[in-house]
């Protein structure tokens, strides 16, 4: 067979086709990531015409310094609490809803769209809407508590603000998990389910012994997405509480330090690197554990 440009050129052609995508990936993802690592060793502020210089590991040492260690450890602790709560509760509720909506329930298509609707809303819209709902002066939630002789400051309460933020984050992102679980359920052969029922298994036994093991790839995907997303979340917290009332997490500290507060972008870059390492470590551990539990069809 004759190749118009030679055999070597023909083999290289697919890689040349990938070159534009690789260049864009490097330009908009790898490049900024590497620059963040470099800037984490500087005292750059982001203010125009302000001189900056390399300061070594001073930003990292400042993060672990005794003067700031308590606040930073509190933020890290809330970050992990936020991650664990969102991951477990969001996926548990999404799995339950997916099992229900996977049946021929009347109006199941409407409910699928309804539960996915919060995903398409912007963070600002979600935050402002729930701020109105939990308005401590004249909001619907305040009126509901008033029926029982109770009241709350909601997002202005040191005890209620953080659980409310977690609940709103679960509500806003659950549609992703629901869709993935539904897709996984629809790939399970019904013959296996029917065989289990013929053998005398009840509904729970069919789910635990057949459905859930075959759904583990979807569980893995959802858990990893929830872990990565929740460890980096800060937008909804910023809109609802600005990080006050014991709701600040590591992602919000990065945003506040780099852009909304002191504009210490060098220090914020070091926090970003630490956040990346935490996300990478936790996600890899979760992936290694969950992959071992998967059952191949």
Explain what the structure shows.
The protein is an all-alpha fold and 297 residues long. The protein has 2 domains: 32 residues, no CATH class; 254 residues, MetI-like (MetI-like fold, Orthogonal Bundle), CATH 1.10.3720.10. Helices cover 73% and strands 0% of the residues. It contains 13 helices and no strands. α3 runs antiparallel to α10 and α7 runs antiparallel to α10. The longest helix has 36 residues. It is globular. It starts with 6 loop residues before the first helix and ends with a helix. The relative contact order is 0.13.
CATH superfamily of the largest domain: MetI-like
Shape: globular
Tally of helical segments: 13
Report the biggest beta sheet as strand number plus sense, adding barrel if it closes. none
- Give the radius of gyration: 24 Å
Helix-strand layout with pairing:
Layout: H1 7-39, H2 58-63, H3 66-101, H4 108-120, H5 123-133, H6 140-146, H7 161-186, H8 190-198, H9 203-214, H10 216-232, H11 235-241, H12 250-260, H13 265-293
């Amino acid at each position: 067979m004759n190749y118009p440009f030679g055999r070597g050129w023909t083999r290289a052609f697919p890689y040349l086709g990938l070159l534009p995508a690789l260049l864009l990936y490097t330009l908009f993802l790898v490049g900024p990531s590497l620059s963040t690592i470099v800037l984490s060793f500087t005292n750059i502020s982001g203010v125009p015409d302000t001189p900056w210089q390399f300061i070594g590991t001073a930003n990292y040492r400042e993060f672990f310094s005794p003067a700031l260690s308590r606040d930073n450890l509190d933020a890290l602790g809330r970050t992990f609490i936020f991650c664990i709560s969102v991951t477990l509760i969001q996926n548990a509720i999404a799995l339950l809803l997916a099992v229900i909506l996977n049946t021929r329930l009347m109006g199941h298509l409407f409910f699928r769209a309804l539960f996915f609707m919060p995903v398409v809303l912007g963070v600002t819209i979600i935050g402002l809407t729930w701020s109105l709902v939990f308005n401590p002066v004249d909001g619907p939630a305040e009126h509901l508590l008033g029926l029982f002789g109770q009241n709350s400051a909601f997002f202005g309460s040191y005890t209620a603000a953080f659980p409310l933020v977690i609940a709103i984050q679960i509500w806003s992102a659950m549609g992703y998990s629901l869709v993935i679980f539904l897709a996984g359920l629809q790939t399970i052969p019904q013959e296996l389910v029917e065989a289990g029922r013929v053998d005398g298994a009840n509904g729970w036994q069919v789910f635990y012994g057949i459905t859930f093991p075959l759904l583990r790839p979807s569980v893995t995907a959802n858990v990893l997405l929830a872990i990565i997303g929740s460890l980096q979340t800060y937008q909804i917290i910023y809109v609802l509480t600005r990080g006050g009332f014991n709701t600040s997490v590591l992602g919000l500290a990065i945003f506040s330090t780099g852009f909304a507060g002191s504009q210490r972008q060098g220090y914020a870059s070091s926090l970003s690197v630490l956040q990346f390492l935490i996300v990478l470590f936790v996600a890899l551990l979760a992936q290694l554990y969950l992959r071992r539990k998967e059952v191949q069809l």
